[in-house]
Amino acid sequence: MRRKWDARTKARVVLAGLMGGCVTDICRENGIRPGLYYKWRGQFLEKAHTLFEQDQRPQTPAELEAENARLKRLVGQLTLELDRDGGSGR
Asked: Left (φ > 0), alpha (ψ -120 to 50) or beta: where does 75 sit?
């Protein structure tokens, strides 16, 4: 039976190798074959740059509504502060 590996475990294993660990030892400790390690490493390196890209996922209507409500609350709070301070900015 094939074992399912979660993304965190794969990343941990790959990073151990990239940080100078002996790949043979890492594979033995984690019960994987070196070929699988190198496959994961290739996937990791191929997609690593996406960590530094902005989230390109479009927001859902619910997310947009929640952000809108948050911003309205913030505007209300700032307006109250300005009114309380007499509009002098402090």
From this structure: alpha
